Amino acid sequence: MSRLAVVCGGSRGIGQAVCRLLAQRGCRLAVVSRNKDAARATAASLSGAEHVAFSCDVSKETDVQRTFETIQKTCGNISYLVNAAGTNRDGLLLRTKPEDMVDLLHTNLLGTMFTCKAALRSMLQTQGAAIVNIGSVVGLKGNAGQCVYSASKAGLEGFTRSLAKEVASRNVRVNLLAPGFIRTDMTAGLRENEAARSIPLGRFGEPDEVAQAVLFLLESPYITGQVLVVDGGLQLAM
Ligand code: NDP
């Protein structure tokens, strides 16, 4: 049977591009997002095998637990997990509301911890299982106006490296991909021409370009505990 890939945040943006590429590689997809209709529409648009959609808020542990139990029951063991569900709420720290801090950390950091925990037992049963978490270049370098977002993404680096050590002996690999500016709903409000001036390659990346790198990490049997930056050289200029 073909490999089962769970993509959290698969309904839009980077996650959706990952779904498309993995479907082309012959994977069966479980597309996860809060909005079930959007996840369903993505699943229905994919090529190849039968794909399924699940509504789940990754920031809620019980919701994640319930969803992953259903995925395993209905679709079987998980080979790949991609954590692309994420949110941002930019602003200076002095103006950031505590509830926004909590939401950011719950979605971006705890959400990934919850899904990894919920998927692991199943992944331990699968040959060549791999996880890719999506961080951000600002988690590595910091950025004014993104203190809490950066902290949530920096946390993913420590989490990814530690989990990679925990599960390496069971042949499960865990890596972090850190994108720069990518053209999705998340960056739709930015002035692209202005922001692109700071990028050595001179443009925002496309979701498909990130998906290629996710696929590389998922399929590279000797890479674990690494951070791969996909940013058009932005980090060089930060
Ligand atoms: P989008 O806003 O385009 O898509 C976000 C996806 O995450 C959607 O599918 C959304 O679906 C889902 N999602 C959001 N919150 C939750 C939640 N609580 N539970 C489940 N699903 C959720 O974002 P991008 O594709 O741009 O971002 C993907 C990841 O890449 C994020 O982690 C982001 O931080 C990171 N990133 C993005 C960059 C960029 O420039 N775009 C740069 C660096 C990192 P729904 O709303 O239906 O739940």
Automatic annotation (TrEMBL):
InterPro entries: KR_dom, NAD(P)-bd_dom_sf, Sc_DH/Rdtase_CS, SDR_fam. PROSITE patterns: ADH_SHORT. Pathway: Lipid metabolism; fatty acid biosynthesis. It comes from Myripristis murdjan. Belongs to the short-chain dehydrogenases/reductases (SDR) family. The keyword Transferase does not apply. Pfam families: adh_short_C2 (PF13561). Keywords: Fatty acid biosynthesis, Fatty acid metabolism, Lipid biosynthesis, Lipid metabolism, Mitochondrion, NAD, NADP, Oxidoreductase. Residues 3-185 form the Ketoreductase domain. One of its GO terms (cellular component) is mitochondrial matrix. SUPFAM superfamilies: NAD(P)-binding Rossmann-fold domains. The keyword NAD applies. It comes from the Eukaryota. This is 3-ketoacyl-[acyl-carrier-protein] reductase beta subunit. GO terms for biological process: fatty acid biosynthetic process. One of its GO terms (molecular function) is quinone binding. It is found in: Mitochondrion matrix.
